[in-house]
Amino acid sequence: MTPEALVGHARRKGALIATAESCTGGLIAGAITDVPGSSDIFERGFVTYSNASKVQMLGVDQAVITEFGAVSEQVARAMADGALMNSDASLAVAVTGIAGPGGSEHKPEGRVCFALAINGRETMAETVEFGAIGRANVRQAAVAQALGLLAGALS
């Protein structure tokens, strides 16, 4: 779904969106707020690139980061929950991953974990392996995936 269509759909549903971003560094919020009138539906964005910012701004438990690593569904879920709790939004999307270059045997380049939190529902999380397609491409693919998750939640 295009950002324009997402904004229109969220407006019709009366939804307010928050984002919690690590590897995308605010690109999801930027894609949404590039749309004129997005202030009707975009409540706020958190760019939490460091582990410390995930803990301080979103309330992610340091023990979860230590146990599972910053790039994990558990941390993505905690980020989305934190964005929802620390905003007036009705839904929040979170993303954390390894855009590259680099990675490891256990967490390869192109692995991105997503989570979607919606008031009154269980937070869902998923991992997408985009592969070693380059930093900019991983980040853009993550933005598209996040917008798709938001659109699906509003359907």
What would you say this structure looks like, in words?
The chain has helices spanning 3-13, 27-33, 51-58, 62-68, 73-85, 135-154, and strands at 17-21, 42-47, 91-97, 111-118, 124-129. The model has no long low-confidence stretch (mean pLDDT 96). The radius of gyration is 14 Å and the shape is globular. The protein is an alpha/beta fold and 155 residues long. Strand 4 and strand 5 form a beta hairpin. It has 6 helices and 5 strands.
Order of helices and strands: HEHEHHHEEEH
Coarse shape? globular
Q: What Rg is obtained from the alpha carbons, in whole angstroms?
A: 14 Å
Supply the helix-strand structural class: alpha/beta
Stretches with pLDDT under 50, minimum 5 residues: none
Q: Count every beta strand, where a strand is a DSSP E run of 2 or more residues.
A: 5
Residue share in helices?
A: 40-55%
Brief summary of the model shown:
The chain has helices at 3-13, 27-33, 51-58, 62-68, 73-85, 135-154; strands at 17-21, 42-47, 91-97, 111-118, 124-129.
Walk me through the topology:
Elements lengths: L2 H11 L3 E5 L5 H7 L8 E6 L3 H8 L3 H7 L4 H13 L5 E7 L13 E8 L5 E6 L5 H20 L1
Parallel strand pairs: 1-2, 1-3
Antiparallel strand pairs: 3-4, 4-5
Question: Any descriptors?
Answer:
6 helices; 155 residues; 43% helix
